[in-house]
Design goal:
With 191 residues, the protein is mainly alpha-helical. The chain has a single domain, classed as YgfB uncharacterised protein family PF03695 (Four Helix Bundle (Hemerythrin (Met), subunit A)). It has 8 helices and no strands.
Amino acid sequence: MNNGSIGVIFILVVQHYYVEKMSYATIDALLGQYDADLSAAQAQGMASGLLAVNINFSGAQWLEELLRHSPPINDEHKAVLDGLFEDTQDVLLNDEFEFEILLPDEDDSDLIERIEALREWCKGLLLGVGFANTATQFSIQTQEILKDVAEITKLDSDIALDDDEAENDFMELTEYLRAAVLALRDNFSEH
């Protein structure tokens, strides 16, 4: 085995390790280290939008756009972000309903923080769709979904933290968005 093979094996092992350890807090902290303009939620939202439009969109292009104004990223951190993109791509490639929106863990954050992250995720989704899409017209269903997503970016997070109804509404919105990404993927793949 030469040094090149060892390097590739090391990166694959590191990438596998970090994908397993991936969490909102980890990704958000990593992006913060590089002064990225996007949060973890926005980054995954952007990847979701890019991939909904074009499932074969390049992870390298996503990473370049994500870290456009950032210092060079080291291989270990690149592997973590590559893992986020590839994980998002993998779940969007299959027809199972496994897609999960990257949000702060319920145990580590309150509802207000999760609502803010959901708004940020929606902004990222819209950014990704806009970046990858070249069409000037959308199907009616796509227009409705994008309009709904734009409305979610305006959610009010001024709520009582112990509001069970708000928690249920949040869960319903999250489920809607999970389905919406898959519907966008299906709509864009038809054109």
